[in-house]
Specification:
Shape: globular
Strand content: 15-25%
Structural class: alpha/beta
Amino acid sequence: MSAVNGYSAAICAEGGTGTKVSIARGFGAACKTYDSASRLQKIMGDVMLAGIPSGLFPHSILDLGCGTGWFTRKLTATYPGADMIGADLSPGMLEQAESLFGSEAVHWLNADAESLPLADESVDLVFSNLMIQWSRCPETILKECCRVLKPGGFLVLSTLLDGTLRELKQAWAKADPGQPHVNRFFSSGEWRDLTSSVFPGSELDLAPIVLPYDSPTTLNRELQRLGAVFRGEERRQTVTAPGRFRAMCRAYPGSQNGGVLATYEAGWLHWCKPHAG
C-alpha cells in the first residue's frame, strides 16, 4: 500500500456518518448566505468551465456537490439540451437550489458522493467544484466519478491543498498553541499520487489564489457564511473564547496595516475517460 493510499484508508477509518451529518447540517445552515460569500468558489468554478473541451457535447451532466446550484445553472445554460443532475449531501443546499432554479430543467439529488445512486457509465460530464476536500475518503469519490463516467466522458474537479489559509493557521498557532483551527488538506504530492493512481493520464493544474479581506474578522465571517468552518475531530467542543480570537486577529500577518490577505492553494483536475481497448 502506498503512503498516500495508506493515509486515505486511515482517514476513512476515522470518519463516519456523524461527520457527514455535521457537514451536511453546517452547509445547510449556510444555504441562504453561501452565494454572497462564495468568491473563491466562483473563481475556481469559472476556471473549470473554461477548461471543458469545446468539442464536448454532453447528453448527461452531473454537478457533484452542487450546493445552491450556481454552476448547475451555468452548465444548464451552456448545454441546454443535456440531462442535468445536481447532487449534494446537504438537503438544505438542495432546497435552496430548487427554490432559486426550480426543478424542471434539473434533477436535484440528495446523495453521498462516496456512494452515488447512479448507473455505471451513465454520465458524459462530471463537474465537481470544491467538494472533495470535505471528504475523509477522497479516493472513494474519485472512483465513483470514474464508475459513473461514460467512456469518452470528461471529469473536471477542483480542490484545495496544503498551504490553504496558511496565514490564518499561523495566527492561530500563536494565539492558541497546539490547538488546530484550520482544516487539514492533502499536499500537492499526495493529491498528485492519488489522482494519477485513479485517473492515469489526468492533468493537474496548481495555482495559489490570494483574496483580500478588510480584517481577520471579515475572513472568519466569510468562512462562517459559507459553512466552511473547521471540522476536525480535534476541534474545541466549546465556543472559542473572545480573548483567543482577539489574539488571533493581532497575530494575523499584516493585520496592523489595515486589510489582510488569505491564500488558497487551488488544484484543478481534468481527465477524459478512455474507451475500452
